[in-house]
């Protein structure tokens, strides 16, 4: 005689799951962290994502960008045109942030600078000889060494010029 269906499928407590962590994980999933400061400040937890983004004048996804040729879409478009975002300051702040140009900071490690200076000091612009050098521990190819030298030139142009000038003065004396 078999067991009853209810007793077989009964839920049992799982002692291997930390309920506190599970609750925190579910909370994070429900309310994800918004990286953008402007959107986070204007966000209303009582509204849906679509309503929040519509208030800010933003679109949810790519779906709303391209027009769809239907009567229903035309009616929605007319209603959307009449809806002016209630939080236009969000768009202005995002545009302002996007228009600011970020400065690119290229840096080279101290080891790489010493490596490049040694190679240039010993071999000048002869990259094949640099590839055969004893200090080429990583067995860089001539092209890889050339890229490293060019990176050093881009990162520290004044320092490179001073280094080359000091090499030329040493050769002349």
UniProtKB/TrEMBL annotation:
Pfam families for the chain: Nop16
Ranges in a coiled coil: none
Superkingdom of the organism of origin: Eukaryota
Record protein name field: Nucleolar protein 16
InterPro entries noted in UniProt: Ribosome_biogenesis_Nop16
Organism: Triplophysa rosa
Annotated keywords: Nucleus
Homology family: Belongs to the NOP16 family.
One biological process term in Gene Ontology: ribosomal large subunit biogenesis
């Amino acid at each position: 005689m078999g067991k009853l269906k209810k007793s077989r499928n009964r839920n049992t407590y799982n002692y291997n799951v930390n309920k506190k962590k599970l609750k925190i994980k579910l909370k994070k999933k429900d309310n994800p962290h918004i990286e953008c400061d402007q959107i986070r400040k204007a966000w209303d937890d009582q509204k849906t994502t679509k309503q929040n983004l519509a208030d800010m004048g933003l679109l949810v996804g790519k779906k709303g960008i391209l027009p769809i040729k239907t009567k229903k879409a035309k009616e929605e478009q007319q209603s959307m045109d009449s809806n002016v975002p209630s939080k236009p300051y969000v768009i202005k702040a995002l545009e302002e942030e996007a228009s600011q140009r970020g400065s690119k900071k290229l840096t080279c490690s101290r080891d790489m600078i010493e490596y490049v200076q040694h190679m240039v000091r010993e071999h000048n612009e002869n990259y094949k000889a640099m590839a055969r050098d004893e200090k080429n521990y990583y067995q860089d190819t001539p092209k890889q060494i050339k890229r490293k030298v060019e990176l050093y030139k881009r990162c520290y142009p004044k320092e490179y010029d001073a280094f080359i000038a000091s090499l030329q003065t040493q050769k002349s004396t």
